[in-house]
Design goal:
The structure is a homodimer of 490-residue chains. Chain A is α/β, with parallel strands linked by helices and 490 residues long. Helix content of chain A is 43%, strand content 13%. In chain A, the strands form 5 sheets. In chain A, strands 4-12-11-10-9-5-6 form a 7-stranded mixed β-sheet, with helices on both faces. Chain A has a 4-stranded antiparallel β-sheet with strand order 13-14-17-16. The longest helix of chain A is centred in the last third of the chain and has 27 residues. Chain A is elongated, with a radius of gyration of 29 Å. The two termini of chain A are 53 Å apart. At the A-B interface, helix 3, helix 5, helix 6, helix 7 and helix 8 of A face helix 3, helix 5, helix 6, helix 7 and helix 8 of B.
Chain lengths: 490, 490
């Protein structure tokens, strides 16, 4: 309960009078006592009674007549009663609200966001990095500095396209990845999710086809479903999206967009090599279909040099790049970006304006300062080292505790491990049992187009201590073994 | 230019080699020098050359063959050249991007957000309060405290519905306004604009009719246009939306939503009295049409007690309440709220998830702490006092400098003054002249449904010093007098 918003005294006096009107003790036309008299009667100040009368008058329940006093208004009793609740059956317009397209996915996304609150249990469901490694002190210093120096100027409205300083920092960051970016060509969004959703809104009408890797990021599926897209899942191999399948889909015609996560694909961790990247860029351009490249995970990596983003291999503007610093810096910043040709960028900025006006200038300035300081590069090295160690622990634990027939690959980056369960094991059933045993994970079906049980689970290892990883995987492994009836690796 | 992202040395080496490949100096199959030799030749470390080779391999431009060395890959020259720019005429899919429905309004909204950057001039265009009065120190202290104590836990992902603590603070705030609110019934949004846009998305399909006060908040018009709504403008009198006109619109049928700003209506400042509020609530409920009440300006007020929100007069759930603390606390917080029946609230939360996942937990916690501290109530009193004084100055300046035939009303709250120009004076023409003379304002047409010149201008007095108000209004007044050809009040 908010102390600051406790009822002030005058409102209690007012409510007393309203109660009297409702009970019939003060019918219309009743003359109210003078301020002084009521104040004496109730043991409160005259000012309090005056405020109560003012409030009643603002509500239209009493009226002051010049030179004769204050009276209960006509119909005051009826007015004071709140508008009656409707008969059961709900509000007539509620029936028009369609249910979510995929309730299972909605549930999983909810868990992914809430995952860290697991308390005693072990949650591999979480979608972000380890909160204990977030650059809290750096941001505390930066925000403190901004508020001390820029003062209110850092806290007013902001241009919808985004803070110019942050866009310059983002352009410098992207140019380092060989992406020909300028501050002018960029727009700042509320995480990469908003960028994805706005691009989908711009380019896809209900019933139109969009190709995605399957499995893929549930947030993209949610945005496509909201747009009414017909989602075409393209399988992956160890080099990412299968272009032979994509080409077949492109030949069928009518494709409006290709959404891809070529770097540390979520949930499988796959990295598309440079050769296939070039092929994808050419294939899409040849068919005149734009590519939406999601590059939200690049900076958490355990191996060597990564191939450049698709956007670096394309000078035509046919590759639209979105990214964010949610995973690599701070979820709470809620900042992502969009790099797109001018016409699309302008469309997105205009639509963002009618959606939420602008992103917080305070957080934009803070992110810009953080990126410029060089702290970000050091931070990425540090978390990559810690997460790589945790990945090794998870890898060993999976090998130790899971039965034969379970498959997974050690990804070269990203915070998750994608595990294929043995034939006949239901991820849905496993999820219920695991939650009961204090272990959570993201069931595979959230990452597929159609809502159906899938023999996959996604495990986040980044946010969990090594001992807890071992414990959680042991618990899961026992459940999987029990489900397969095999105890071959006890 | 971002120092942190200057090109590291190995990338310069890499770019040298790429240049050589492009120039034809190293055709496919060329054997590259050993690490040691190239390092000596270039005067860099072996590690630098190794990193350059790794980068080239990640790009697929060179390949290492076991026991025989490193070679330029087949087709490397073609691969190294960025994908060719398309012939002029643009990308094929760009043609599908519709232009903004109302470019004049987009322009004005852009100015409203950027207005304070006017430099030497006087900008009455600004849509927010005075940045010099923002509670910067309070937020600096609160954010510092949160980061010191909650650390990373305050910076992770957040539930899409909103931080539970903030929702509890909002519920307490609303109960103080007699609105029956609970933390559970509330959703946190990115400003009230996002709440408006999500409700419109939920309830309005293309071609369906929505009633709004005309003029009204351009952001609401933008959201309605994005949804493809047929917008029906209902005129206001001195008590707000005219219910006789609204009733006629309701009788015609097919109305899906009524959007209203009953308290300090933007742009006119009108306050709808309690009696008409009750009538509106009943009328809408009788026709089964939901009311979207926008209560974003309540806390900046110059008069006595305000009538309660419509949502306090309705127990049926037919009134959907949205609000924000953008105007009364801090634009940079980007926080608003939605109070709606369970089914609509759930729909909005699910759609927000696919749009931008969640609002910054750091800013949510900070806003909650600020509201709970009691600082907010003191702040509202302070800014109301300052803005009231500036309103009096603007009022006097308008009377002094504007010719007869100009009309305006002193509103009981809010940061703006809505001025009707004399017959024959074009707000568009006045705007160009005024900007030339160093004075900006929001032209009236942004607040109307159809894009057409309107004889109105909106002047924000809240953010401007009294001397500058006087100076700016004098400049404007001279231009208006010149346009009317009257010099009757020189």
């Amino acid at each position: 309960m908010a102390q600051a918003f406790d009822q002030p005294l005058y409102r209690r006096v007012r409510d007393e009078i309203v109660g009297e009107i409702l009970r019939g003790g003060a019918p219309a036309g009743t003359r109210l006592p003078s301020l002084r008299r009521l104040a004496q009667e109730l043991g409160v100040s005259r000012i309090t009674v005056e405020a109560a009368y003012e409030a009643l008058e603002a509500q239209g329940l009493i009226e002051t007549r010049a030179r004769s006093g204050t009276f209960v208004a006509a119909h005051a009793a009826a007015e004071a009663a709140p508008h009656a609740a409707r008969a059961r059956g709900g509000l007539p317009w509620e029936a028009r609200l369609a249910a979510a397209a995929n309730p299972a996915r909605e549930r999983v996304l909810g868990q992914v966001l809430r995952g860290a609150e697991g308390g005693e249990g072990v949650s591999f469901a979480w979608g972000a990095g380890d909160p204990r490694l977030f650059p809290v002190d750096a941001f505390r210093a930066i925000i403190g500095r901004i508020l001390r120096h820029a003062r209110g100027a850092a806290l007013g409205p902001e241009d919808t396209q985004g803070n110019a300083q942050l866009r310059a920092s983002l352009a410098a960051y992207l140019r380092r990845l060989d992406v020909p970016a300028s501050a002018e060509a960029l727009a700042v969004t509320s995480g990469s999710q908003q960028a994805i959703d706005l691009v989908v809104t711009a380019l896809v009408r209900p019933g139109e086809r969009v190709a995605v890797e399957e499995p893929t990021w549930p947030g993209a599926l949610g945005a496509l479903e909201a747009a009414g897209a017909e989602i075409v899942g393209v399988p992956l191999d160890h080099e990412g999206m299968r272009l032979d399948v994509l080409e077949r889909v492109l030949r069928e015609g009518g494709l409006r967009l290709i959404y891809t996560v070529p770097t540390f694909h979520n949930p499988t961790g796959t990295v598309m090599p440079a050769g296939r990247r070039r092929e994808l860029v050419r294939l899409a351009a040849r068919h005149g279909v734009p590519v939406l490249e999601d590059d939200a995970l690049r900076e958490v990596r355990f191996g060597g040099v990564l191939p450049p983003p698709l956007a670096a291999l394309d000078a035509s503007g046919n590759v639209i790049l979105v990214g964010s610093f949610t995973k690599s810096v701070l979820p709470a910043a809620r900042l992502g970006y969009l790099l797109a040709p001018a016409k699309l960028r302008d469309w997105v900025v205009a639509r963002k304006r009618s959606r939420d006006l602008y992103c917080s200038p305070l957080l934009q300035r803070a992110m810009s300062a953080y990126l410029e300081s060089g702290d970000a590069v050091r931070h990425w090295k540090r978390i990559s080292r810690v997460y790589a160690a945790r990945q090794r622990v998870m890898d060993a634990a999976l090998a130790r505790h899971f039965p034969r027939g379970v498959r997974w690959r050690r990804a070269a980056g990203g915070p998750v491990c994608w595990v294929q369960l043995p034939e006949g094991v239901s991820a849905r059933a496993l999820f219920s049992q695991a939650v009961h045993a204090g272990v959570a994970f993201a069931p595979g079906e959230a990452f597929f187009v159609a809502p159906a049980d899938q023999p996959f689970i996604r495990l986040n290892f980044a946010a969990i201590d090594e001992a807890r990883i071992e414990r959680g995987i042991a618990t899961l492994g026992a459940l999987v073994r029990a489900a397969t009836g095999k105890e071959d690796r006890a």
